[in-house]
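Regression test case RT-17, inverse folding.

Input:
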């Protein structure tokens, strides 16, 4: 019971893959098959000019991305999960749908549509799907109200947010009430890069995805750490996409910089960055065994969770293959496959039959 509102009753389910460890994929994206027209600048999903089983995401008449039916069809999605032994997918929208640039109430209208759809998918197979809502971060009051609706009324586990809000870093004081509400609600927060820093120099070679997104995610983590957000909210549960981006690979430099130039780095929070490594979760989507081992050493296995970025090409085609390639102990594999995810989501092991 929180603030007079009861959380949904826990679901007691058997592990659908009793012969193996339960796998929970914390990073998978979903869209409705169709969307209303929210106006200029917003994504439209068009089926008319697309091949069968595909659709086109259009923004102001220009193609953003072509998607397949696995972006919206639950049966196709579950078939892929069954193929790869994934017991549970944590669902969130595609970041281009955040709409932080828009008039807040228009962004709220889109968020409510997406969240209602997510809740419906979760309700259709609650033993296989966990939903994370989206909120209009450009207006803290509206964002908090929609997050409350997501958790209290729709039964979602938390929210997905972007690494910045229309150019504002996550330590912006206007955003603090959103994080404070997430802590009070017990809502998990999944931070995904979008609208990346330096994008005007990354128009070629897919660099916004290859360089911009990792840098953007590191910027978000550093903002929450150096800005004191994590210090002020010790029960806030955050997870970051793509293995925390560039943060793990440059952590030595980040920590050293804090030590030698506290006059520049410790202006809002005097606690060393290393103190927060066991406070945040990252997904395991790093595509390299040596880097995954580094994540486990840096954060601890209890803070690294399986994530595939399903159904997009920069993801892991067969979720869990990288983890299995590293020769981890059974205890570490259990933490990576479901332990870290359950702790971050604030859900019980019994709900999904995990030991």
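Golden output:
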């Amino acid at each position: 019971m929180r603030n007079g509102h009861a959380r949904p009753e826990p679901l007691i389910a058997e592990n659908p893959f009793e012969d193996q460890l339960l796998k929970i994929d914390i990073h998978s994206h979903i869209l409705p098959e169709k969307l209303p027209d929210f106006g200029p600048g917003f994504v439209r999903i068009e089926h008319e000019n697309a091949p069968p089983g595909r659709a086109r995401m259009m923004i102001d008449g220009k193609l953003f991305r072509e998607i397949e039916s696995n972006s919206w069809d639950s049966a196709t999605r579950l078939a892929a999960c069954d193929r790869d032994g994934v017991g549970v997918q944590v669902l969130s929208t595609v970041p281009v749908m955040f709409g932080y640039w828009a008039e807040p109430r228009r962004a709220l209208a889109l968020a409510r549509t997406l969240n209602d759809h997510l809740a419906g998918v979760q309700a259709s197979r609650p033993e296989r799907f966990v939903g994370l809502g989206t909120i209009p971060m450009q207006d803290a009051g509206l964002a908090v109200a929609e997050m409350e609706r997501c958790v209290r009324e729709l039964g979602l586990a938390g929210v997905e947010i972007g690494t910045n809000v229309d150019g504002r870093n996550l330590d912006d004081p206007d955003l603090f009430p959103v994080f404070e509400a997430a802590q009070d609600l017990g809502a998990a927060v999944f931070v995904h890069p979008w609208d990346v820093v330096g994008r005007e120099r990354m128009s070629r070679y897919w660099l916004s995805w290859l360089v911009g997104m990792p840098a953007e995610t590191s910027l978000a983590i550093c903002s929450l750490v150096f800005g004191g957000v994590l210090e002020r909210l010790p029960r806030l549960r955050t997870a970051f996409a793509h293995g925390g981006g560039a943060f793990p690979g440059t952590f030595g430099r980040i920590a050293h910089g804090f030590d030698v130039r506290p006059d520049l780095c410790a202006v809002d929070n005097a606690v060393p960055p290393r103190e927060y490594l066991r406070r945040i979760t990252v997904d395991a989507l790093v595509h390299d065994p040596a880097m995954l081992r580094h994540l486990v050493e840096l954060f601890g296995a209890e803070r690294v969770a399986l994530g595939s970025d399903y159904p997009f090409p920069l993801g892991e085609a067969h979720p869990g293959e990288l983890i299995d390639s590293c020769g981890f102990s059974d205890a570490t594999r259990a933490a990576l496959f479901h332990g870290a995810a359950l702790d971050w989501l604030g859900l019980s092991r019994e709900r999904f039959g995990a030991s």
